[in-house]
Amino acid sequence: MKYFLSLFLGLFLLCACNKDEGLGGSSSLEGYIYQIEHSDDNFSFQTNTFPAAKKDVYLIFGDNEADYFGDDVETDSHGLYRFDYLRKGDYIVYSYSEYADGRKAAIFKNVKVGSGANTADTLFIHTGDAYGTSMIKGRVWALFYDNTNKVDDGWAVDADVYINRYGEEMFFERIRVGDQGVFIFQKILPGKYEIWVTSEDPETRKLTPVKQVIEVKEAGKMYELPERFTIKVRA
Predict the structure, then answer these.
(1) Alpha carbons 226 and 224: distance in angstroms, whole number
(2) Distance in angstroms (rounded) separating the CA atoms of residues 91 and 64
(3) Long-range CB contacts (< 8 A, 24+ apart) of 202-205?
(4) What is the rounded CA–CA span in Å between residue 70 and residue 75?
(5) What mean pLDDT comes out for the span 123-141?
(6) What gap in Å lies between CA 143 and CA 130, rounded to an integer?
(7) What distance in Å separates the CA atoms of residue 12 and residue 8, rounded to the nearest whole number?
(8) H or E stretch including 34?
(9) CA-CA distance, 147 to 145, in Å (whole number)?
(10) Which of 32, 122, 133, 230 could be bridged to 187 by S-S, CB 3.0 to 4.6 A?
């Protein structure tokens, strides 16, 4: 009696398991992944969108994003992927966006798989050196001195500008001022920063940093310093 009871329970559990999401069925799921590219030197933050070729796509059996059990395939040259031999049920399909600093973020889509062929909504992932970043823009004005006598003033073309994370002493990037005294730091991640230039005392020749603090709160924006820098320079 115990043998037949165990056999019955085993068959019941096997049948129940076969009703769950996963492999072993006759359904399929396919869809497209498109890649949104965020390129450098793009002051308008325009993007290019194209099929994501040879990208890994992952399938979760069930509708819980925390469950990593499933299957994975690679897209073709058109960004198309396909999962075969699925049972009916709820699934999650996802792929990864990649930030400028190398971090990755999963982009999910919930999908209900029924009988036969099924199609998922198009998945858009983001890549590129400028993804997740912003820019900081400012200007530098110079007062030119001959010894202790001011002889001219104008935009401080070719002056060095530095940026460091707020609270840190060491700068992580230095750029030169361009036409009209303009400088732009690119690929800046959200956070608080110090922007600074040096001003030279015309008499002692001592260099003093002139600083401004700015907070970058979100990606994909141009942040402009509220005031222009004014520095003294030996002519």
Answers:
(1) 6
(2) 8
(3) 202/145, 202/147, 202/148, 202/149, 202/232, 202/234, 203/147, 203/148, 205/234
(4) 17
(5) 94
(6) 35
(7) 6
(8) strand 23-37
(9) 6
(10) 133
Residue 39 DSSP one-character state = -
Q: pLDDT, tens digit, for every residue of 50-91?
A: 999 999 999 999 988 877 778 999 999 999 999 999 999 999
Task: Give the distance between the most distant pair of CA atoms in the chain.
Answer: 110
Cβ neighbours of residue 174 closer than 8 Å, sequence gap 6 or more: 160, 161, 162, 163
**Is 155 strand, coil or helix?**
strand
**Domains detected in the chain:** 20-127 (2.60.40.10), 134-234 (2.60.40.10)
For 81-128, the DSSP string reads EEEEEEPSEEEEEEEEEE-TTS-EEEEEEEEEE-SSEEEPPPEEEEES
Cβ(173)–Cβ(185) below 8 Å = yes
- Its pTM stands at 0.74
